[in-house]
Amino acid sequence: MELRKLLEMDKFDNECKKENKIECKKIREYRSTEYDVERNEHIETGEYCSSYPIVLKSDGTVWDKASLYIDFLRSDRNRSSALLRTAGNDLLDFLRFMEANNLNMLHLPIKKAQRVTFRYRHDLLEREKEFKLNGHKKIGRNTISQRINRIVDFYEFCIENKIFTFTELDNRPYTLLKKRIYFEDEKGFTQKKVVRSSDLSIPRAPRAIQTSDSIKDGRKLHPLTEQEQSIFISYLKASNNRVLQLICLIALTTGARIQSICTLRVNDIKNMMISKKVKGSFKKIEIGGGESIDNKNDKKYIIFFHTELLEMLNNYINSEEWKERSTQSYYKNKNNYVFLTKFGEPFYTSRKELEDRKNRL
Predict the structure, then answer these.
(1) Is the sign of the CA dihedral 160, 162, 163, 165 positive or negative?
(2) Highest mean pLDDT among 30-34, 54-58, 74-78, 221-225
(3) How far apart are CA 104 and CA 116, in angstroms?
(4) Integer Cα distance of 68 and 57 in angstroms
(5) CA angle 77, 149, 220 (to 5 degrees)
(6) Exposure of 110 by Cβ count < 10 A (0-12 exposed, 13-18 middle, 19+ buried)?
(7) Which residues contact 259 (CB under 8 A, 6 or more apart)?
(8) Which of 31, 103, 208, 219 has its CA 20 to 30 A from that of 323?
(9) What is the DSSP string of 169-198?
């Protein structure tokens, strides 16, 4: 990783600032480099990351161990920008806990309950129960389970890569365990598998029970009633943000996810405009499965657009507002995203853009 990029503070965006503490930041359009000793310069490796998180200590310096771990997730495990951001926030939370309690990663006294890892676990559980006076927000069970597992993986990375060794560990930060879990496969048969765990592990919240008025899709979702839709549309009409209006109208009328809506391209609209109608006044388009429009887990799917909505979208991509935004963006007027911020940035970076940027290097 090129340290020079980590220290170019003008490229950082504030993630959040609370109580004057410098917190998680990110580098936009990060490109990995390697140092060429013979040429005495940094060479780009061709690896691209749309948003790269940096964990800063309260004094404003980079937490080097966190940076090494995050780069390991990016390069060795090929994790997405979204997951890197989550990992950065998890490590930041652990760092802030240590700073608040004047601890470090090697604070591992004989008494297990006093070790930094177990104290952090206890703090997470307490924060789940109530609001803390120091400004921490209440967090859910799945989040604290994720965070403590992240810290175990972080320690494992540090030990494996000899960032610190077992000789520096007065006592174990945790004990690794093997657990058997049982689950039902697609055919309804009970299966068993062995997973790695630790004595720090916090069980996740039980899955929500499927009900007749909800959809189980990662979380329990309730479709809007007709009355709720009417109220929502009235607020949309009152808004002067055309991008917000169109994004919400697509979501309401097609059921598409925000990921799919925000990776919609200009050519997708143009092609639908000249395609044949299906199901009366609708036109269809395929998403996911290698198409230009992304979908969750890249699952192939078909969504249907009403012709009136397509007319609205076609008018927007021919408007002065869209043209002005596109001139500031990566694709300019070459099959750009339908929806861009006023600075010309996409609301969601598509898989295709990541590939295009890699091929450009």
Answers:
(1) positive
(2) 54-58
(3) 7
(4) 15
(5) 95
(6) exposed
(7) 294, 295, 296, 348
(8) 31
(9) -SS-S--EEEEEEEEE-TTS-EEEEEEEEE
Q: What are 176-194's pLDDT values in tens digits?
A: 888 777 766 666 677 778 7
CA distance 310 to 171: 64
Bridge partners of 52?
27
Q: Which of 149-153, 208-212, 301-305, 328-332 has the lowest mean pLDDT?
A: 208-212
> What residues have CB less than 8 Å from 334, skipping those under 6 apart?
none
Cα–Cα distance between 25 and 11 in angstroms, integer?
10
Say if CB 269 and CB 314 are below 8 A apart: yes
Question: What is d(CA 265, CA 267) in angstroms, rounded to the nearest whole number?
Answer: 5
9-68 residue pLDDT tens? 333 343 333 333 445 677 777 777 777 788 888 787 777 777 889 999 999 899 999 999
141 touches 219 (CB < 8 A): no
- C-beta of residue 53 within 8 angstroms of C-beta of residue 84: yes
Q: Give residue limits of the domains in the chain.
A: 1-79, 101-207, 234-360
Tell me, what's the pLDDT at 128?
A: 82
36: phi then psi, degrees, rounded to nearest 5: -95, 110
Grouping H, G, I as helix, E, B as strand and the rest as coil, residue 13 is strand
